[in-house]
Design brief:
Order of helices and strands: HEHEEEEEEEEHEHEEHEHEH
Largest sheet: 10 strands, parallel
Number of helices: 7
Number of strands: 14
Oligomer: single chain
Helix content: 25-40%
Structural class: alpha/beta
Length: 432
């Protein structure tokens, strides 16, 4: 019979493991028009800041990321200006590709007053978390007017119709091979879209682990990147951020952590993934997929006990019927029940499964994340970011602010659900 003393010791160790785990809470991406160039903020933005920074147990600030090494100008399509941040934010950098970044692009961790990508002095804290490449596990798509249609870059000798990031969705067409010029006036959803210099194969990354040449190239670049990050003071390094396939992450960890036990030699201490449901019907496989990713995260954390959890920094709803295996589809398609162009404000309507529209979706996901833990008490998810964009990348209008700058129902719910999730992360109760 197990004594109460043993039970208490086990629960105390479990609580200690959870207490040592980093936790960045909920944060932001997308346009930051509520933050002005002089450092003042709109009332709605101040409410968001006050509500979210308490969820970050690591820095006490609102985390922000933008698929880049530093803030930059907002996408030209939005007609917004710059991604200004205040001292209440912590910026989380990412090396979007799989190549080795230039040393000067990687700012020192834990510093303030650094110069961003457009030469603006930023008062935000530079995080000690550095993110890996964006969505190498899928081919993805070129964005803009060929979203879901152009599935690869034009090669030499092919026609190269130019994709336009600000073009009307669905108005552009790739060449007969499904390829386009995705570099002149657009960009891809992820790095899996592109060839890799020095690696045979057109788009080698999604199947990299079956290609020794790709493995060698990927691991070589990764370990150099990790060395740069560690030299700049970063304490946390995420594996590449996958769109769909956590088996890709497992293979990455097996190679990166082979004979290596910490980030100094390239073994990441965090994993990362993205999640989208589709067609405003998360009950039709979306919630199940989210739970599958949570369960897979826990399995990886059990297999690799040094892992501190998952960065889940793109979460939203895709405006399409998900009839492809890799999260890429054509928006406003004929098979949809709720195409965005036919919905009020281009967002999800109130339905039986979404009684508060997208706000219900946010609540349920954060509730599910809060319940997912390892056997030793570590949280599966340690960072969560809602995709605060308006029909960008094939999504619905997922903004948390209305046009007048006030928080909408999704924004208010994001704050309350995040606070509930974070308060659960604090609980270290031992009952014997």
């Amino acid at each position: 019979m197990i004594s109460l003393r043993c039970v208490a010791a086990f629960l105390a160790a479990k609580a200690a493991n959870a207490a040592d785990q980093p936790f960045w809470g909920c944060g932001m991406l997308g346009d930051m028009d509520g933050v002005r160039s002089d450092g003042t903020v709109s009332p709605g933005m101040q409410t968001l800041i006050d509500g979210l920074k308490s969820t970050n147990k690591q820095d006490g600030k609102v985390h922000y990321w933008n698929w880049n090494f530093a803030p930059t100008d907002s996408d030209s399509c939005t007609k917004k200006s710059h991604q200004y941040l205040t001292k209440d934010f912590v910026f989380v950098p990412e090396n979007w590709g799989v190549g080795v970044p230039k040393d000067e692009y990687v700012r020192k961790a834990g510093t303030v007053g650094w110069i961003d990508s457009m030469g603006v002095k930023c008062p935000a804290l530079m995080s000690d978390l550095f993110l890996g490449a964006n969505e190498p596990d899928i081919i993805g798509s070129c964005m803009g007017d060929m979203m879901g249609k152009c599935l690869g870059p034009s090669t030499q000798g092919e026609a190269a119709p130019v994709a336009h990031i600000c073009g009307a969705k669905g108005s552009g067409s790739p060449n007969p091979q499904g390829h386009c010029d995705c570099w002149s006036d657009s960009h891809a959803t992820g790095v899996g879209f592109w060839p890799v210099p020095g690696v045979d194969g057109y788009q080698p990354l999604p199947t990299c682990w079956n290609n020794s040449q790709c493995v060698s190239s990927n691991m070589g670049s990764w370990k150099q990147t990790a060395s740069i990050a560690v030299a700049k003071g970063y304490k946390y390094l995420s594996a590449p951020l996958v769109a769909v396939n956590l088996n890709w992450t497992k293979s990455f960890l097996e190679h990166a952590c082979n004979g290596c036990a910490d980030i100094s030699c390239g073994c990441p201490n965090l994993i990362g993934w993205h999640f989208y449901a589709n067609d405003c019907q998360p009950e039709k496989g979306g919630y199940a997929d989210f739970q599958h990713k949570l369960d897979a995260t826990v399995e990886l954390m059990d297999k690799f006990p040094h892992l501190q959890g998952a960065v889940v920094n793109e979460v939203g709803m895709l405006n399409c019927a998900m009839d492809t295996p890799d999260a890429i589809c054509v928006p406003n398609g004929p098979k949809q029940k709720y195409p965005a162009l036919q919905q009020p404000n281009h967002a999800c309507p109130v339905t039986a499964s979404l009684p508060k529209g997208l706000a219900s979706f946010v609540e349920e996901l954060l509730s599910m994340a809060g319940k997912s833990k390892t056997k030793d008490g570590r949280r599966a998810v340690v960072l969560f970011t809602w995709f605060n964009e308006n029909m960008n990348g094939g999504t619905y209008n997922l903004r948390i602010f209305d046009d007048d700058g006030s928080l909408n129902e999704v924004g208010k719910t994001y704050i309350s659900a995040c606070q509930a999730w974070a308060s659960g992360a604090q609980e270290q109760k031992i009952v014997v």
